[in-house]
Design goal:
With about 260 residues, the chain is of the alpha/beta class. It has five helices and 17 strands. The strands form three sheets. It has a seven-stranded mixed beta sheet with strand order 8-7-6-3-2-1-17.
């Protein structure tokens, strides 16, 4: 970690979708780009500017759940887009017509230009449907010459977070909620996300996985679940006395350090 290094260009596009641009390489995480996901969830954040997901060099998929692996969004990017996916996910994507796929397991990496993308562990169930294909769940470390960005995907805390914290992370993209009124296992709530931040020790943290998707027809009655989690996360980070700066970014907006 270089405390003087500028942040890479980043846009929080909503849910777990973040555009990270560093060393001239555009990396997109878990693309959810369209008004609906799997006919059940709808986007309640503003529509996206298509330029924010154009000319992507690589896509990192954390796991197979439909709100992270959205096939319609991937088709919007193009079937020849490089997809970096968990071990076990490749067969599904090849069957769906995608051609450039790299499977990784924790500790393995793939270089895209001058950027190294390394798979990290995650504690989350990676099934597509209860009876569908299964694969690992992952996070990713995106490293340029002077910056390290950690994308947690969907996860609970895990022991290796302390090891990631020794790397000198510049940015951690941390999930702080989900898309409904409750969280199942394998997720971080605002308190858990703050505890994970304590272990990761990044210069900056961007709360993700909030404020974007909600089951059709009930979002208006559960507005607090769409807006409160990142604020509670930032408050808990402050209460823990961490030096990490929380960069609260609304869906569709650029991540600004100041």
């Amino acid at each position: 970690m270089n405390s003087d290094a500028p942040l890479p260009t980043m846009y929080f596009l909503g849910h777990s979708t973040v555009l990270v641009e560093t060393e001239g390489v555009r990396v997109l995480t878990d693309p959810v780009l369209l008004p609906r996901v799997a006919s059940v969830l709808r986007r309640v954040a503003a529509p996206l500017d298509p330029s924010l997901h154009a000319d992507v060099d690589a896509v990192c998929i954390s796991h197979l759940h439909a709100d992270h692996l959205d096939l319609a969004s991937l088709r919007r990017l193009g079937t020849d887009t490089l997809l970096i996916v968990p071990e076990g996910a490749g067969e599904l994507l090849y069957r769906k017509g995608f051609r450039e796929i790299v499977e990784l397991s924790p500790g393995k990496f793939h270089d895209v230009g001058r950027v190294r993308i390394t798979a990290t562990p995650a504690v989350h169930d990676g099934f597509r449907t209860p009876f569908g294909p299964r694969a690992l769940a992952l996070g990713y470390l995106v490293e340029g010459a002077s910056t390290k960005v950690y994308f947690a995907g969907d996860t609970d805390q895990f022991d290796e977070m302390d090891d990631l914290g020794t790397l000198g992370l510049d940015v951690a993209l941390i999930p702080v909620w989900g898309w409904g009124p409750n969280l199942g296992p394998g997720h971080l709530d605002p308190r858990g996300a703050a505890e994970a931040t304590r272990r990761l020790r990044p210069r900056y943290a961007v709360p993700i996985h909030w404020g974007t998707l909600h089951p059709f027809g009930i979002g208006r009655w559960m507005r607090a679940h769409l807006v409160d989690p990142p604020r509670r996360y930032a408050q808990t980070v402050a209460e823990l006395g961490l030096t990490t700066r929380v960069l609260h970014t609304e869906p569709g907006c650029r991540v600004e350090p100041g």
